[in-house]
Design goal:
The chain is about 55% helix and about 0% strand. With about 120 residues, it is an all-alpha fold. The longest helix has 14 residues. InterPro entries: Ankyrin_rpt, Ankyrin_rpt-contain_sf.
């Protein structure tokens, strides 16, 4: 995870970059969630672009979908605090359907059901 002060400096120098999408339609906040960024980094990105928490990528995933998937894949080692920050910032994101008609809650519940089957 990048230090918060470095990310803050980058945002200060290039504020428009928080709006820049990659080839998959992902913003920096999506990429931060995929990489298990800390709550501090997620907060910085949300402060710079509050609506980014509800922006979808090409798979219609909002950052919360990706943060939940990353947390599951890391077996809880990625930041649960980051998920809490995203939910607090945009509670409606928990109901957002991705391309596969899954909400972030569905993804979590499916993972829990699979772990109980094992």
């Amino acid at each position: 995870d990048a230090p918060v002060d470095i990310v803050s400096a980058i945002i200060s120098l290039r504020p428009a970059e928080v709006h820049a999408k990659d080839c998959n339609g992902r913003l920096p906040i999506h990429l931060a969630c995929i990489n298990g960024a800390s709550a501090g980094i997620i907060n910085l990105l949300l402060e710079a672009y509050p609506l980014s928490a509800l922006c979808s990528d090409e798979n219609r995933c909002v950052p919360l979908h990706l943060a939940v998937e990353t947390c599951i894949a890391s077996e809880g080692l990625s930041s649960l605090d980051a998920i809490a920050v995203l939910v607090a910032a945009t509670p409606d994101a928990v109901f957002h359907l991705n391309e596969w008609d899954e909400t972030p809650v569905d993804i979590s519940a499916d993972a829990e059901a699979r772990s109980e089957e094992m």
